[in-house]
Amino acid sequence: MRRAVAIVTVGVALAGSVYLASLNLNPHGRFLGCKGVITGFGSTCGSRPAVWEANRAVWQIPVAIVIMALGLATAVVILQPQHS
Hints:
The chain has 84 residues and is mainly α. It has one domain (2-79). The chain is 52% helix and 12% strand. The longest helix is centred in the C-terminal third of the chain and has 23 residues, at 57-79.
């Protein structure tokens, strides 16, 4: 029974990781000006610099790796023998 739970846990983690990592990954971000207008590099909004809008690949791949690592770690814990 414990082995089945471990297999399901890894399967769910793997499916979630693959799904998250494969969603519309865009290798480019963009600069946004003060009012959301796309501007060039080095643009400023008064005294502060323009905002860099990160793309999905910046966070999706690391989160997918963490989900998979947590799934594998959970499976290892589940498969550990019980000490009485």
